[in-house]
Amino acid sequence: MPSETEVAIITGAASGIGRALAVHYAGRGVKTVIGTFPGDPHDPEETLMLVKKSGGDAVIHEVDVRSTDSVDAFARRAVDEFGRLDYAVANAGILRNASLPELSDDKWADMLDVDLTGVLRTLRAGAAHMGSGGAMVAVSSIAGGVYGWEEHAHYAAAKAGVLGLVRSVAVELGPRGIRANAVIPGLIETPQSLDPVNSLGPEGLERAGHDIPWGRVGRPEEVASVIGFLTSPAAGYVTGQSLVVDGGLTVKMRA
């Protein structure tokens, strides 16, 4: 039977920010479709266990954001399973290291297909099932969203593109009562940032934390709570915005 409880879809919810958001939603009574990529080494069952431990309800659904058909089916699962869709969060992303000479057309295209076009597919699919009061959030990054990052031009370009996409979607969907915003996480301790090959790794994150005014890198739960705010009635007049969640990193004056 259809439920009046709010329902959300989250891509990339097997770990990190996506997992933390599913747990956050559970505490708020929002039912969740946990999106997971089949090749992800992290177990979405752990996310489901944490959601249920928090008193929530969710289902796991395999989704490849490189495929329109896959993403459309993902959004439909929310309606089929829970009777409605209120929130769509485009969180899935990849991070690959590539210097400019090594940045082939294929590497560029693969990155944008996931980190930018994948966001488009998620927002588009979500909007098809939402009515007035719906809200969408896309996860960008300070790399591209604020800063450049050497050997990550394709990643930064995709994350910068997310901001323009969200602004335009917000304008287009505003008359329907659907909001769209972005979050720009700073240095957050996630499996992606802990990767020493493609990102900073544990030691790099620890060093970077000393230069953040808050005195440490962020936690997934701290980004999830901001997404939760943006997909709540408390943010009912907030749309087309990009909110930085970085402990003050990007506003600190450098000596």
In short:
Strands 3-2-1-4-5-6-7 form a 7-stranded parallel beta sheet, sandwiched between helices.
Topology overview:
Blueprint: E1 7-10, H1 16-28, E2 31-36, H2 44-53, E3 58-62, H3 68-82, E4 87-90, H4 105-115, H5 117-127, E5 135-139, H6 142-145, H7 153-173, E6 179-185, H8 201-209, H9 220-230, E7 242-245
Parallel strand pairs: 1-2, 1-4, 2-3, 4-5, 5-6, 6-7
Helix pairs in contact: 1-2, 1-9, 3-5, 4-7, 5-7
Radius of gyration: 17 Å
Q: What assembly state would you assign to the polypeptide chains in this entry? A: single chain
Shape: globular
Supply the helix-strand structural class: alpha/beta
Distance between the termini: 60 Å
- What are the segments in which pLDDT stays under 50 over at least 5 consecutive residues? none
Give the strand order, joined by hyphens, for the main sheet: 3-2-1-4-5-6-7
Sheet with the most strands, sense and barrel status: 7 strands, parallel
- Give the % helix: 40-55%
Order of helices and strands: EHEHEHEHHEHHEHHE
